[in-house]
Design brief:
Blueprint: H1 2-21, E1 29-31, E2 35-42, E3 48-57, E4 63-70, E5 75-79, E6 83-84, E7 89-97, E8 103-113, E9 120-130, E10 133-135, E11 158-163, E12 192-197
């Protein structure tokens, strides 16, 4: 029994040295949140939203941010520092310009780094962009109308978008040029569609 024990002990020690030698220092990226919900915004009131993400290096080597890639031209990403030392923090501010976007929307910014376990991560902005009032037909083409003829009527659907905590929308006035056009608000032909949104 004693000779067998003498042979195995050096092998176990040698194996332990090999395992220890394979552990290498590396950076490790961590973000305070992956997706930020910006709530319900009105296109009539706000043209863009922004949010700042905090990137922390939880590893023991310098974390290098090698690139930031917004998912569309409507988004910009500003990084405070490309090199993050162990324990250090950098900020990434993402700004989403609504332009003509409405409804539920989500944009993302892909962050590339030298983290061997997470070389690319996605950060997102998500929410709803609404218009208080909009028409399903933004304009009407009556074509060529003779002076002695009567044009055909056109029906327009008026859509009202609101948050759940807001009162019921009501159409109380329509402005138009009575010399050129006649407009009638007919309940059975004109619908006010309520589109309600909640944050989660």
């Amino acid at each position: 029994m004693r000779p067998k024990s003498t042979i195995l002990l050096p092998f176990l020690l040698f194996g332990g040295i090999l395992i220890t030698a394979t552990v290498q220092a590396a950076p490790k990226i961590n973000v305070d949140e992956r997706v930020h919900f910006y709530g319900v915004q009105y296109l009539d009131e706000v043209r863009s939203v922004s949010h700042t993400f905090y990137l922390t290096n939880e590893g023991d080597e310098t974390l290098v941010i090698t690139g930031t890639h917004p998912s569309c031209g409507c988004t910009r990403a500003d990084l405070s520092d490309q090199n993050i030392e162990p324990g250090g923090v950098a900020t990434l501010t993402a700004e989403f310009s609504f332009e003509r976007y409405t409804g539920k929307d989500q944009i993302r910014v892909t962050v590339d780094s030298n983290d061997p376990d997470a070389p690319s991560i996605d950060l997102g902005l998500q929410g709803y962009v609404l218009q208080k009032w909009k028409a399903d037909l933004p304009e009407i083409d009556f074509g060529v109308v003779q002076a002695s003829s009567t044009s055909q009527p056109a029906n327009i659907q008026i859509i009202a978008q609101r948050r759940l905590d807001e009162p019921e929308p009501v159409i109380d006035r329509i402005d138009y040029d009575p010399q050129r056009i006649q407009v009638n608000l007919v309940q059975e032909n004109t619908r006010v569609v309520r589109e309600s949104y909640q944050e989660k």
